[in-house]
Amino acid sequence: MKKRFVVVLLMLLALVATACAGKTAAKRTLVEGDPYSDTQFLMGTVVTVKIYDKDKQGALDAAFARVQQLADELTVNQKGSEVDAVNKNAGIKPVHVTPSVYRVIAAAKHYSKNSEGAFDLAIGPITSLWHIGFADARKPAQSEIDERLPLVHYPDVVLNAKKQTVYLKKKGMAIDLGGIAKGFITDEVVKTLKAKKVTTAIIDLGGNIYVMGKSPKNVKKDWNVGIQDPKKPRGTAIGTLPASNMTVVTSGIYERYLKVDGKIYMHLMNPKTGYPFDNNLMGVSIVTKKSVDGDALSTATFDKGLAGGMAYIEKLKYADAIFIT
């Protein structure tokens, strides 16, 4: 992939996929009117899937069934989930998990190591302390943060591929897959749709966008992924990015935040300080083929700031980045 960096000053970024690539109707087996479409609130976010192929209501239903299945397994705040079981047994015993859960935890540990801890799947003790995005969100005391920081240490997450188990070495440790789960689920939805012979679709899991195939308006044109103008109503773009069979994943300060004494604290946590990231970035978008990669990279890159983030992405052959300062 040819490396691209875009730095946008004094703007916030969100992404909306549109099919505005041309006016020539392509000769494909696509719906003539509105696509098969559904929007549901799952995993604390809005999930939208639009399918443009004919006779694919069953594929749409299968996509949402897969999202719900994975949400039940991966959500850290849901009692009875597999991640909840892993956390409850921290310092006690390894926990056997399903293949899907093991894969996403393994991917999370890979990026924890790859980013040198900028992304850390063991951030759970800190995210639960701040709980930004929930009704009980608060700014914790420094003593509380200091007490929990030693538990944020991804090397203490022990994986056994043969037995398919996950073990957290220290009592009080907790993994939080919020920085990678949406990407993993997006990729699983793509697999589900491909298995159902879908060729043209948009998948949007709370801003994790994947566009399948070419634009439904022109078989020779890519989709346009619109860059949302934060000062205008949703759907108003300030620019577009051509994409086909690609994902665009954004992390930014505008997604979820806590405001205390006039200061805004974003939901993305710095594993080294125990505080939300506070640097020269307002948003980072990653463009790549796998949404799970984009999810983890957007968080890790945000941690490193503009210069460090650009240097980090430059080393990767499979991802491009948009930085907003």
Automatic annotation (TrEMBL):
Keyword Cytoplasm annotated: no
Signal peptide range in chain numbering: 1-19
Bilayer topology annotation: Lipid-anchor
Stated role: Flavin transferase that catalyzes the transfer of the FMN moiety of FAD and its covalent binding to the hydroxyl group of a threonine residue in a target flavoprotein.
Broad enzyme group: transferase
GO cellular component, one term: plasma membrane
Binding residue positions for Mg(2+): 179, 295, 299
Domain of life: Bacteria
Family classification: Belongs to the ApbE family.
Protein name in the entry: FAD:protein FMN transferase
InterPro entries cross-referenced by the UniProt entry: ApbE, ApbE-like_sf
Co-factor note (free text): Magnesium. Can also use manganese.
Database matches in Pfam families: ApbE
Keyword set includes Ribosomal protein: no
Major subcellular location class: membrane
EC numbers, comma separated: 2.7.1.180
Species in which this protein is naturally found: Lacticaseibacillus paracasei subsp. paracasei Lpp126
Catalytic activity: L-threonyl-[protein] + FAD = FMN-L-threonyl-[protein] + AMP + H(+)
Cofactor(s) this protein requires: Mg(2+); Mn(2+)
Keywords linked to the UniProt accession: Cell inner membrane, Cell membrane, FAD, Flavoprotein, Lipoprotein, Magnesium, Membrane, Metal-binding, Signal, Transferase
GO MF term list: metal ion binding; transferase activity
